[in-house]
Inverse folding.
């Protein structure tokens, strides 16, 4: 057993999202005799972060509270855990097992779980004010409160990106009655990097059919805002008096990906090139007492031999959190069944009433087959199989109802893990 502080084994978990919570609950289930402290930047306990874009809310002075109440998750009220919220971990000394906190205090731990997640990527790295737009990203409850509030009163909104968050925001904005412009400069349509050009283009047409102006390529690039015209000033250097107030600027939301929160770990000799590198059991190999889980963890890809993957979706956070907690318990000598991550990824969203479900690993496919339906009539349902050398490795199902649901389930049963060499994946 490791040394104890004041006679008590201390486990630190950096990150109050679902991965951190699931790690903590897994440790408790293994009946580890320890005090578990969860550190979180936000003042809220764990909530269903993907739900921030799923639902329209009525105008209210307590909008943030209403969203938080709606997105509660099981286990977040567990008072067997010590919650230190509104507290950022500034730096970590992993060799001496010390965290330096934003409060000026330090925390000495015996075991550590890194579940610090990611933050939104932005096109501009500073906080320059834009003359024409109110720039925002969406990650937490505070962002959601602001954006939902603005969507209820804004006439126009520009959304940059065509991933899950961008598409859900576009759908939500139309529900609120906004005029929506979507800009995707890098790809032809939504989810192209996962589903390929044909399905991506079909989803782009679906978005346009639902009243969104959707521009791609150079047409989108011309309308991107880099805040180059920022904080206009007159000849004396003072701010110009004719600048529009924030309420006069249109809302400009960037949803162009994410960046792992690893800066606080610098100087510890870890591989932080894309998140935190771990082994198949979520163990940080450079530090035997440290584990990582959730969006920040980069682990051996079950599908591609010799490749590492970092996945950002709800089920992955749950499963890697569970595994990190059980691996930690096992490292302390407790009975904990651990097995590497090896499941079929599964993601679902809804965009303008169209349910989109993706399973397996379409990225490694060398061909696709439309099992039933028509990509030009997505509201009537379309089921697609992705194959590699004739073996089904992925599936996508788009429908406004559930007319092909049984076929989709049968297709999922036929999925096979096909481990390919990373050199053979485009």
């Amino acid at each position: 057993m490791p040394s104890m502080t004041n006679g008590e084994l201390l486990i630190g978990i950096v990150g109050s999202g679902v991965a951190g919570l699931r790690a903590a609950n897994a440790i408790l289930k293994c009946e580890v005799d320890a005090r578990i402290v969860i550190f979180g930047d936000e003042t809220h306990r764990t909530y269903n972060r993907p739900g921030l874009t799923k639902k329209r809310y009525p105008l209210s002075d307590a909008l943030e509270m209403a969203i938080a109440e709606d997105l509660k998750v099981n286990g977040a009220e567990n008072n067997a855990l010590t919650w230190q919220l509104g507290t950022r971990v500034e730096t970590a000394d992993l060799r001496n097992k010390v965290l330096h906190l934003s409060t000026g205090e330090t925390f000495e731990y015996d075991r550590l779980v890194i579940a610090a997640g990611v933050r939104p990527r932005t096109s501009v790295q500073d906080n320059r004010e834009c003359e024409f737009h109110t720039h925002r990203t969406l990650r937490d409850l505070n962002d959601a409160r602001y954006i939902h509030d603005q969507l209820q009163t804004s006439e126009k909104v520009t959304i940059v990106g065509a991933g899950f968050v961008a598409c859900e925001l576009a759908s939500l904005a139309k529900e609120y009655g906004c005029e929506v412009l979507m800009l995707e400069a890098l790809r032809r349509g939504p989810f192209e990097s996962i589903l390929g050009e044909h399905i991506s283009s079909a989803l782009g047409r679906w978005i346009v059919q639902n009243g969104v102006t959707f521009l791609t390529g150079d047409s989108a690039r011309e309308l991107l805002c880099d805040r180059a015209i920022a904080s206009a000033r007159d000849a004396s250097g003072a701010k110009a008096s004719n600048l529009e107030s924030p309420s006069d600027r249109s809302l400009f939301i960037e949803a162009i990906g994410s960046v792992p929160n690893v800066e606080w770990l610098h100087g510890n000799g870890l591989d932080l090139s894309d998140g935190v590198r771990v082994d198949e059991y979520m163990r940080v190999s450079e530090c035997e007492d440290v584990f990582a889980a959730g969006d920040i963890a980069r682990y051996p890809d079950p599908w591609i031999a010799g490749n590492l993957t970092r996945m950002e979706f709800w089920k992955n956070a749950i499963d890697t959190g569970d595994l990190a907690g059980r691996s930690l318990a096992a490292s302390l000598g407790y009975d904990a069944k651990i097995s590497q991550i090896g499941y079929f990824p599964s993601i679902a969203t809804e965009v303008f009433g169209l349910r989109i479900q993706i399973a397996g690993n379409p990225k490694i496919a060398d061909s696709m087959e439309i099992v039933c339906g028509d990509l030009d009539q997505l509201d009537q349902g379309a089921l697609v199989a992705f194959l590699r050398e004739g073996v089904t490795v992925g599936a996508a199902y788009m429908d406004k109802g559930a007319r092909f649901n049984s076929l989709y389930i049968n297709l999922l049963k036929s999925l096979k893990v096909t481990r390919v060499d990373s050199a053979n994946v485009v």
Summary: The longest helix spans residues 314-331. The radius of gyration is 23 Å. The CA atoms of residues 138 and 147 lie 8 Å apart.
